[in-house]
Structure formats: C-alpha cells, structure tokens
Amino acid sequence: MDLKQLNAFIAIADLRSFSAAATKTGLSQPSLSRLLKQLETEMGVELIDRYHRPLHLTEAGAFFYDKISTILTEIDTVTSMAQRLSAPSSALNIGFVPSVLYGLLPEIIAMLKQASPNIDVTLKDISSYQQMDALKSGEIDIGFGRFAHQDPWIQQILLRHERYVVALPKSHPLAHVREQRLIDLANNRLILYHQTHLPISAAVTQAQPTSDKLATHTNSHRVTNEPVSFSAPITEPLLHLFAQYGISPFMTTTVSDLQVALGLVAAGEGITLVPASLQTVRTEQISYQRLVHENVTSPIYLHTLKDFVHPKIPDLLTAIYHVYEQRGITYRRQQFT
C-alpha cells in the first residue's frame, strides 16, 4: 500500500468516475484502474463497485474512505509544515473575515509595517471556517476570525469582544432611538448573513416562541410560512443572541454575506445586527444604534498552527496591542506558544 494507490482511490471515490478522476490526477484511466486493483488486492477487499454508474463505494470502501481521508489530510498538513519549517517564508500571509477589515485591521497592518519596514504582508478575504484548511495548507500563516474552532492542529487566542449595534433603515420608527433592546426588535424582519455557525455545544435551545405568531423564513431560493421550531439547538449567531434572551424574531431572511445584508437594510427590507466597527458603512441610508445588552458581542479570534508559528507573528501581536492601547480598548495580552 502506498500513497499513489491511496490518492487514486480517493480521487475515484470523490468523483465516482474513472474518467473524471483521471482528469483530476493527470493519470490515465488504465493507470488509475491498476492502482485501485493493486490496493484492493493488498487489502483483500473490494472498495469500489464498478458495475454501477456513477461508481459506488462498497460498505468496506465507504468505511476505508472515511478513515483514510483524514489520515491523508494529516499527511499533507505535516508535509506542508515540514517544508515551511525548513524554509520559512519572509512574507506574512494573513486571512481575515470582511467585518474585521472595517475595524482596526488596516491600522494594525500600518503599525506593523511602520515597526518592520521590510516585512511583506499579503491579505486574503476568507471565512472563519475556511481559515482552518488554509492554515494547514500554508495558504495563510495566521487568520482573524469571529468564531472559536476546536481543531487539534490549530491554536487560537481571543483578542477582544466587539459590541454589536443594530442597523436599521433611516425611515424605521426606531431609527433615532439611542438605546435599543432586542425585544423591541423582535417584530422586524431580521436579515441573517453568517456563513459559519456556532458549534452545537455552544448553542442555545429555546423552549418556545415569544408569541403565537407564524414566523416567515426566506432566502434567495424560496419563501415559506411555517411555525418556528425550537427543538434543535440554535447555532445561527444572530438568532443565538436573541435566543439567549428567550426571544425569536418574527421573520428572517438569509443572504450570502454581510454586504448584501446591509444593502437590504438600506433598501428598507429589514434590520440586522453588525459589529460596531461597521457603523460607518452606508450611513446615508442606515441608522446604527447601540444595544443596551452588554453581552451582545462578536468576538475576534486570532488563529495559527500549533506546531509552526511564523516568525513575524509576535510582531503582528505587538502591533495589535499597540493599536488597542492607542484606542483605549481593554485587552488581556497573550502570546502563541
């Protein structure tokens, strides 16, 4: 059994086609078939049922695929890390979620470059969830995200909690109310935009809705009217915030990203909650108001690999804390190990 055989099997299992797998791997179909047959012969089991189209995994093949995929991912991660350890890149590749870019990230990068004029920084817009794979592959060296992740390859530190504000159309009756309460917002259409959800362990399960009304859930594909169900844990971040206070918004709309959500608010199609650093966006059409709830916040995490910390990351942390001090932001100094 060798890596060529295993990678051939994974490609065939992923695409359920010898021709598609051949295109992906750059190998001929006879070569792929031979590698798969060698693997099956060595194991003494049939992994692929060749008599179906598309190809099917046998029961043994499905089990083997599930386990070996994880092992191959770890091999790729270790290989990438070993390569970076032997020849560290001079560039610092930083991943970030869009909401962080509207906050202090530009100031932090400017401070970093001022302290280290020769540093080469590249920035990549990438979701919190995708940052985990990007760190392992070497696509980024460090990531700014909004969610905690449990991953044996990743270490993270909490930089700070950022208060949420409510974004309302300028024409909204509550647009000029300076202190907002979630209960007063419950009868509005809440626009949801997070692509990453909270882990089940952190979710809230709400026993029953706050009213007998029918909730309307919409997205870009369908509109349905159905009673709200609270049997499953609430992992969508904004709904989670409402559920912590026993509140369920009357209507929700789910969109692809934060900019679309703010565009809908500007058009008068609903309200949403955003980190306070975004309250300079679309101010001609949107009113941003403070929430009275102290714990309605969005955390900012910094993620990197456990076993390889880029040599420029300590400089980045120094720049972060220096900006926080200039802005009067409370923080607890931490370092990666």
From TrEMBL:
The keyword Transcription regulation applies. This is Transcriptional regulator, LysR family. Residues 1-58 form the HTH lysR-type domain. The keyword Transcription regulation applies. PANTHER family: LYSR FAMILY TRANSCRIPTIONAL REGULATOR, TRANSCRIPTIONAL DUAL REGULATOR HCAR-RELATED. Belongs to the LysR transcriptional regulatory family. Keywords: DNA-binding, Transcription, Transcription regulation. GO terms for molecular function: DNA binding; DNA-binding transcription factor activity. GO terms for cellular component: protein-DNA complex.
